[in-house]
Design goal:
elongated; Ferritin; mainly alpha
Amino acid sequence: MKIAGAASIGAVAVTATACSDNGTAKTAAEVDQLITQAARARADASAASSAIALAPERVSALTTISAERKAHADALDAEIARAAGTTPSATTAPSSSTVAPPPTGVDALRTTLTESARSAGDLARTVSGYRAGLLGSVSASCATQVAVLLP
């Protein structure tokens, strides 16, 4: 009987430990979503820069969009590093030596920015605190870029 009782207590302890991850699974999922948002921001920045070749008359707007989306990626990377308990550095920054994608037109950029605004806004509603504010700001910025800079 003692062995069966000890086994039961051990099983309960393992179950309790597995169920009480102190929110690390949720945090890991949120960080994964932030990584996706940072990748979107970098892709949008690259697309805006490459669109200059197809729409040189919009160089000012496209340069602004590229710079703002790079700033979004940097802010998201900083939050990812904070959540991981590290500080961003040159060694942890994503590589920028990737081959640039072929130029995309302004219409395609408008579509991707609209999708980025929606994605960040949807995610902002599922998190709280600073992350919600950061994602809400990213969403609003993307929507503004579409409405004001790429009408």
